[in-house]
Amino acid sequence: MAKAIIIYETRSGNTEMMAKAIETGLKESGVEVGLKKGARANADDLKDVDAIVLGSPTYVRSLIAAMKTLLFEMDKVDLKGKVGAAFGSYGWSGESIAILTETMKNLAGMNVIEPGLRINRRPTEKGLEECREFGKKIAERIK
Ligand SMILES: Cc1cc2nc3c(=O)[nH]c(=O)nc-3n(C[C@H](O)[C@H](O)[C@H](O)COP(=O)(O)O)c2cc1C
Q: What range(s) does the Flavodoxin-like domain occupy (predicted)?
């Protein structure tokens, strides 16, 4: 069975709603999924999975702190060729999705799905459906 891990952080819950809907999409496609907050994740979580899905809201044009720390954990493991995907909620500029995408590609040499998924503020039902579809797209890339 294909395996994925979703690692994300959130301050006011919006990116967490996205994470859970992406998890649903992956599970509906038959992928075994782990869901973890960035502050509790480390390099070991990245080892035995086919896909790594990273989520961060944008705060002051950057990643939320715990996700920045997680990128240094990524540097400890060989992730070349693994499937990657980035997502996050944003207010007006949404840089975090490009930062996560760029780092997975350039630092880790991962096979990253582009574009990542950005949702403005709190996801609506339509936004959550987009997240589930994104989960399915990630599942297809693994297979
Ligand atoms: C202090 C502060 C700074 C922010 N800076 C940005 C920013 O630079 N760019 C942006 O797109 N949104 C910015 N936002 C908006 C958040 O990204 C937005 O509220 C998002 O939905 C939060 O997601 P979360 O609920 O997962 O924490 C900022 C919000 C706060 C409170």
A: 4-139
Q: How many helices (H) and strands (E) does the chain have?
A: 5, 8
Q: Kindly report the backbone phi and psi dihedral angles of residue 87, in degrees, each rounded to the nearest multiple of 5, phi listed first.
A: -150, 165
Domain extents in the chain: 3-142
Q: Is the CB of 88 under 6 A from ligand 1?
A: no
pLDDT in tens, 33-70: 999 999 999 999 999 999 999 999 999 999 999 999 99
DSSP state string for 2-37: -EEEEEE--SSSHHHHHHHHHHHHHHHTT-EEEEEE
Q: What is the CATH number of domain 3-142?
A: 3.40.50.360
Separation of CA 99 from chain center = 12
Q: Say yes or no: CB of residue 106 within 6 Å of ligand 1.
A: no
Q: What is the Å distance from ligand 1's center to 90 Cα?
A: 5
Neighbouring C-alpha atoms within 13 Å toward the C-beta of 1: 10
Ligand 1 touching residue 55 (CB < 6 A): no
